[in-house]
Amino acid sequence: MSRIRLQAAALRKWEGTLFIAPWIFGFFAFVAFPLGFSLYMSFHRVKVTVGGIETVPNGVDYYREILFSDGGLLYDSLIPFLREAAVMIPVIILFSLMVAILLNQRFWGRTLFRIIFFLPVIFSSGQIMMEFIQQGEGQLAFVESLHISYFIMEYVPASWAEPINHVISSFVIVLWYSGVQILIFLAGRQTIASSVYEAARIDGADPWHTFWKITLPGLAPFIFLNTIFTVVDLFTFPSNPIISKVTTANYGLSSALAWIYFIIVLVFIGAVLLVFGRLDKALGGKR
User: Fold this and answer.
1) Residue 286: CB partners within 8 Å, gap ≥ 6?
2) Which residues contact 217 (CB under 8 A, 6 or more apart)?
């Protein structure tokens, strides 16, 4: 009997291995190898010739050039972009959370509205978004009439005024990128049992206290998930100034810049993990 169980367990392992084998092959062929080769190129001078790719060892010269010798290649674009990301991420999270809560209510045409909020994610490719941004589309009509950008420039420090104005100037486009976050929050909201809300209403809790005591704590894991997703999505946004600097003119220099940017993204995600980890410990006794 035990032998049959061992054979069945081994068979399940082989079945799992066969199912995951295409992914493993695809990862090593199309992800791991390009990543490794780009890291190799970042330490070499790369020249593409008719006979193939020629590489000459260059050490860490490209990294030294980007970080110290020619800091403008990275810092002049990176610092404003990080400030812009610090403004844009909370905006996307708050907007998608509010819309998801509204779309979870029962009203006529709810399915249609859910589709409408998700359609831009399907149809708005990177090139389409770049065209919208270059044409100055996406700004709210009342922003210009009320001269909000002028007040921001007047009362907000200059280092933060420009990123905030840039977010406002493409506010509608930013919200278009909230479709996935809305879908995740909507799925998370439906994991909270309706019986909990019924018990809260019986106890006399109003919608405001219900949101803070039930909805928000219940959606905390999904807020964390959406924050990570938004960070990754934002750092690959079509108007990203760092990605636009990665060209094929110098493969070695571009590879070094890409790896430095990759490390910066990991640090940003690590900061998010640290903040949410501390918040989870702080709220652990209250949930």
Assistant:
1) 217
2) 283, 286, 287
Rounded Cα distance between 201 and 197, Å, is 6
* Cα 22 off chain centre by: 26
More confident residue, 271 or 9: 271
* Structure confidence by residue, pLDDT tens digits, 159-170: 777 777 777 776
C-alpha dist (Å) from residue 166 to 83, 122, 133, 281: 11, 24, 10, 35
Q: Tens digit of pLDDT for each residue in 170-213?
A: 677 677 778 888 889 988 888 888 888 888 888 888 888 888 88
Cβ-proximal residues to 183 (8 Å cutoff; 6+ apart), any chain: 100, 118
Global confidence as pTM: 0.75
**Residues with Cβ within 8 Å of residue 253, at least 6 apart in sequence:** 62, 65, 66
| CA-closest candidate to residue 59, choices 216, 210, 252, 200 | 252
Look at residue 285 in the predicted model and tell me its pLDDT. 47
Q: What is the pLDDT of residue 89?
A: 86
In terms of phi and psi (left: phi > 0; alpha: psi -120 to 50; beta: otherwise), the region of 155 is: alpha
Element (H, E) at 117: helix 110-123
User: Token pair for residue 117?
Assistant: 């909020």
Q: Which residues pair with 44 in a beta bridge?
A: 57
Structure tokens at 255: 């590879």
